[in-house]
Amino acid sequence: MPGIEVWDQFDHDPRIPANAAMRSSDRDRAVIESVLADAFAEGRITRAEYDERTDAAIASRTLGDLMPLVEDLPVARAPRSSVDDLHRQAVRKWEGDRREALLGLVGLSALLWTIWAVTMWGEFPWPLFPMGFALMNLVRVVARKQDIIDEHVRELEKKERKELKKREDGI
Q1: Cβ-proximal residues to 152 (8 Å cutoff; 6+ apart), any chain
Q2: Which listed residue, 15, 35, 95, 148, has the most CB atoms within 10 A of its CB?
Q3: pTM
Q4: Could you give the count of Cα atoms lying within 13 Å of 55 in the half-sphere of its Cβ?
Q5: Which one is predicted more confidently, 65 or 84?
């Protein structure tokens, strides 16, 4: 049962308490019927439960009437990323940080050495100083890989908790 895709089919998310009193549309009821059909096909509910819940979905008047029909099914749960998913996202973020640091070093070096070669050939090689700072940034990103990944994981977890709380509070 694809959780997030289900809730995207509603004009107004029925999980948000502020929307509970809103009248449900035929499309809203059809979405819930589809969830129930998937649950029946997966063996999560019996035929009798399917029939009972489908009849209740058809008779529902508000979005709040629809939620109890699916709240014990996996689709009603807020999707949470697994630890592995968060770690993979954090590693991708670190790889992006590393790529930015490397491109910053290469791009800065090319630009500054070009300016130096055109305007001051043979004079003091001042581009070494800004290059040194860009190189230190690259070394920092590479050397602190695990710390940076752990920090990204914490940020992703915090963001996920915040979104979950927002959803629960009905914002």
Answers
A1: 89, 90, 93, 94
A2: 35
A3: 0.49
A4: 6
A5: 65
